[in-house]
Structure formats: structure tokens, C-alpha cells
Design brief:
InterPro entries: DUF362, TAT_signal. This is DUF362 domain-containing protein. Pfam families: DUF362. By secondary structure, the chain is an alpha/beta fold. It has one domain. It contains 14 helices and 15 strands. The strands form 3 sheets. Strands 2, 5, 6, 7, 10, 11, 12, 13, 14 and 15 form a 10-stranded mixed β-sheet that branches. Helix 4 packs across helix 6, helix 11 packs parallel to helix 14 and helix 13 runs antiparallel to helix 14. The longest helix is centred in the C-terminal third of the chain and has 18 residues.
Length: about 425
């Protein structure tokens, strides 16, 4: 399946690689988080100390709800998905019922973004059925319809997956930008707004960005814009909380793509520079450093991973049906690191079942039995590095001197 992107997927990431030596050399690349909002609020608490600062109120906790009838023969069952969402929210929060669980996160007056992930369309992307259940949960918590926005980085990907067609009347939808382009430093947003209540907050915020000393191929190193990744205006100026719906997938550059990468590459511009050429794969650094931006940390309050259908090879674009499987699971967490380590284990288990090497041992210079690897070595270690920045819990067993370990709870609904 062809991809429209030169940067990523089997097609857009197929030509990319990075040597192990380059990874080691780039591991110390400096990063600067620029946040005008944080500067203005310097007298207040830092985002990491607030209730909703990543890793959130449930560090290390990952609830996996398995229900075998969420998808059968590629047909999804919304009622089954709704039951799994309700159970997962209860198990994550300890609430007596699903409504109470949603109310523990959201309240009237909140403006909530729902971050979708359509990259794997049509084989494996965030399910519209799951999106609709999140909307119902938000409404049950008292969030007004006009204060809910479903979005993706590129509007055209959202439309291509027909996610806009599933939305109820009154729910706004958009993209931070219009479509993918090779030059990713412009701040321009969507001009032809066809949805209500967005107040023209598409595009990217000139005052909120992450600086990382790497630029895209062919870009001018003297232009400071090429070193920046700006946060979307929707993220900085419209919503105060975000529910993110990543997909259970492997990734040709980052090893796996889950909660962390859904934030780092889905909420900012100029992301292709993180893995733009065969010798500049720095997802290990780029992902945790972008997620560490205080606005992203504060506003990304809940992750519900769509594991209804998984991708164990060829992600994120889900290029071949035979590399996907009906997994029938949803994962719930406020801790993106813990969620992604559970994801990593699940992908490696499936790859072992299929006779493929682990993602961390896959690459052009290591193990490439299918001849499809585009990077010298994949980089799932971004998950552990994110933990070192205080973005979540990585270890399944608490090391000596550390307080927390991952609490992975599996609920089988039959």
C-alpha cells in the first residue's frame, strides 16, 4: 500500500536509517522548552506537580480490557466497545460506575480535545466507535457538546479516515494543519473551517515550542525555525484537557508508536526532522523531549489505546493486512510511559509468534528477515528515556530505591 509521505511508514520511513554510533552521539543533543504560558505563570505550581501533570493521578497503572467481540471478521461492534470503555474507566479510577469515572477527570466548563490517530487507515487507526464512546463519557461528565473538539495533526488524514462523518451534530473537528508537506516549519492552519466553535485556533503557536539541535534534510541550518517544533494553537489556546486515542502498533523508526509518540509527533509541527534521513534517526531524544513540554504534560490527561486491531510489522501505516491482527483489547492509563511499555511487550510477543525479531533488535544493520527495515536500528528505548524525564513509570518490577513499578491489570470480559 503506497503512502503519501516521504517521511514515515514502510514507504515514508522505508528509506530512513541511523547507525548505532549516530544514536549514541545524538543521545546528548540539547533541547530547550519554550513556554510563554509557563513564564507568565511562574509563580504557580509547575505542571508536573499538578493533578493532571503527566504521569497523572495513576502513575504506573495500565488497565487492559479484553473483550473478544469488539471486532470479528473486521467488523466492529460499538456496543461491545462501549462496555469495554465503561469497565476500563471504572478499573482505572476505582469509581463505582463509568459516569463517576469520567467525572473524576472532567467537569462542566472543561474544553476537551480528542486526539485521533488515522495514520493506519484503513487497516488500523483510532476507531470511530471508540471516539463516540469518549464523547458520550465527556457528556456524562457535564462537558458541553460545544466544548468538545475531535482532531488530528492533519485535517486531510482525519477526512481520509472518514472520522468526521461519524461525529454527532455540534461536535467540532479539525486538523492542526491541512495536509502533510515536506517543509514542516510553517505555522499556517486550516483556512476553510467547516466546523463550529474553533475560534480560528488551527495552525501552530509562535510562542510555544521545543528547540532541538537537528534540522530536516535540505533545510537551512542558519534558520532558527528549522530547529523548532511549535505546539498546535488548538492545544495551547483552545482546550484545557486532551483525551488521546493511540493505536497498538509497531513503528519502523521508534520501534513502537503509542501514547508518547501520539503526543510528540501529533501535537507539534516539524517532526520529520526526528527521523528524516538514513543517518538522522533521533526519535529516542525527540519523543521524550517534546512530551516534556509543560503544556503537553499538563493537558494530556487520559490515554485510551485502541488495541482492537493491532499492527506488529509495517507500522505506523499498516501497509499489509497480514501484518495486522484482531486483538480485541483497549488499554487505559494516565501514564504514557507505562502504557507504552505494555504496548512494547505486546508487540514483541506477537512478533515472536510470527517468527520476527523483537522491535529493539530490528533494523537494516541488525535483524531484517523480511528485507523491509528502513533504519539501521529501531529505537523503542525512547520509552525508558521518557521515564528518566519523569514522564512515567517504566519498570515492571520496582528497582531498589525506587517507589513505583508498572501495575498492569488485565480484565477479561468474556
Amino acid at each position: 500500500m503506497a503512502s503519501t509521505y516521504p517521511c514515515g511508514g514502510l514507504k515514508r520511513r522505508g528509506f530512513l536509517s541511523a547507525t548505532a554510533a549516530a544514536v549514541a552521539a545524538q543521545a546528548s543533543l540539547p533541547s530547550v522548552l519554550v513556554s510563554a504560558q509557563e513564564s507568565r505563570a511562574a509563580a504557580g505550581k509547575p505542571a508536573a506537580d499538578e493533578k493532571w501533570g503527566v504521569p497523572g493521578p495513576y502513575p504506573g497503572r495500565v488497565v487492559e480490557v479484553r473483550k473478544p467481540d469488539m471486532i470479528r471478521n473486521d467488523v466492529k461492534n460499538r456496543e461491545a466497545i462501549a462496555q469495554a470503555v465503561g469497565r476500563g474507566m471504572k478499573e482505572l479510577t476505582g469509581a463505582d460506575d463509568a459516569v463517576g469515572a469520567w467525572r473524576s477527570f472532567f467537569e462542566p466548563g472543561d474544553v476537551v480535545g480528542i486526539k485521533m490517530n488515522p495514520v493506519g487507515n484503513p487497516l488500523a487507526n483510532s476507531s470511530s466507535e471508540l471516539m463516540l464512546e469518549v464523547i458520550e463519557g465527556l457528556k456524562a461528565a457535564g462537558v458541553k457538546t460545544k466544548d468538545i473538539v475531535a482532531f488530528e495533526r492533519y485535517r486531510d488524514e482525519f477526512v481520509g479516515a472518514k472520522m468526521h462523518e461519524a461525529l454527532p451534530d455540534g461536535i467540532a473537528w479539525t486538523g492542526l494543519g491541512v495536509e502533510y508537506n515536506a517543509h514542516q516549519t510553517d505555522l499556517k492552519g486550516v483556512d476553510d473551517l467547516r466546523t463550529p466553535n474553533l475560534d480560528n485556533v488551527t495552525g501552530y503557536d509562535p510562542d510555544e515550542f521545543v528547540v532541538m539541535e537537528i534540522i530536516g534534510q535540505g533545510e537551512d541550518p542558519k534558520d532558527d525555525r528549522n530547529r523548532r517544533s511549535h505546539l498546535g494553537l488548538l492545544v495551547t489556546r483552545r482546550v484545557n484537557k486532551i483525551v488521546l486515542l493511540p493505536v497498538l502498533k509497531d513503528h519502523g523508526s521508534a520501534g513502537v508508536t503509542g501514547a508518547l509518540k501520539n503526543m510528540s509527533h501529533g501535537l507539534v509541527n516539524n517532526v520529520c526532522r526526528s527521523h528524516g534521513t538514513p543517518d538522522t534517526n533521533v526519535c529516542n531524544q525527540f519523543i521524550p523531549q517534546v512530551v516534556a513540554h509543560p503544556i503537553i504534560r499538563k493537558k494530556c490527561v487520559l490515554h485510551i489505546m485502541d488495541g482492537i486491531k493491532g499492527v506488529y510489522q509495517g507500522g505506523p501505516a499498516a501497509s499489509r493486512p497480514e501484518w495486522t491482527w484482531e486483538n480485541n483489547a483497549l488499554l487505559f492509563a494516565t501514564d504514557p510511559v507505562a502504557m507504552d511499555h505494555v504496548l512494547w511487550r505486546a508487540i514483541d510477543a506477537k512478533r515472536k509468534e510470527k517468527g520476527l525479531p523483537p522491535v529493539g533488535a530490528s533494523g537494516k544493520l541488525v535483524l531484517d528477515p523480511l528485507g523491509t527495515e528502513g533504519f539501521d536500528v529501531r529505537q523503542p528505548q525512547h520509552i525508558a528515556l521518557a521515564a528518566r524525564l519523569g514522564l512515567g513509570i517504566f519498570d515492571f518490577k520496582s528497582p531498589k530505591g525506587r517507589r513505583f513499578s508498572i501495575d498492569h491489570r488485565i480484565v477479561n470480559m468474556g
